[in-house]
Design brief:
By secondary structure, this protein is of the alpha/beta class. The chain contains three helices and nine strands. It has one domain: Rossmann fold, CATH 3.40.50.
């Protein structure tokens, strides 16, 4: 499922575009989200809520790799995410309307996984940068 799909993007079996408002839907299965970075907090909050409802297997979330003291990082990533990938270099985005490479973000990008991921996926991700498993303390 992609709850914030760009026009003509078919990443998941269910693709919810901006006009349909993926924040208002219940999420299920495996979810991939690359939200507008300017709206990352509301999307990460929704991801944490949906993961806690246990209706999703896992959620892959693309965000800036910003870890500022007052940020969505400490509220939604730290307590809920199992894995974070810090890409070795900046990733290139594709403009969905033109099908061409778009500008890269000014800073780095991270991929977060709410829940566990298959070992094959983790092996592939580890080749892309620094893959970190978040520690859980009892």
């Amino acid at each position: 499922m992609d709850p914030c799909a760009a026009p003509d993007t078919e990443i998941g079996e269910i693709n919810i575009g901006k006009e349909q408002d993926g924040l208002s839907y219940a999420w299920e299965g495996t979810v991939f989200m690359n939200p507008p970075f300017s709206e990352k907090e509301e999307w990460l909050e929704k991801a944490a809520q949906e993961y806690q409802r246990q209706t999703v297997d896992r959620i892959y979330a693309v965000t800036p790799d910003n870890t500022d003291a007052i940020s969505s990082w400490h509220e939604y990533i730290v307590p809920h995410v199992e894995w974070t990938l810090f890409y070795e270099s900046r990733i290139n985005f594709i403009d969905p309307e033109k099908g061409e490479q778009a500008n890269s973000p000014a800073g780095g990008t991270a991929l977060h996984i709410f829940g566990d991921a298959p070992n094959a996926t983790l092996r592939l991700l580890a080749e892309e940068g620094d893959l970190v498993r978040r520690p859980r303390f009892l």
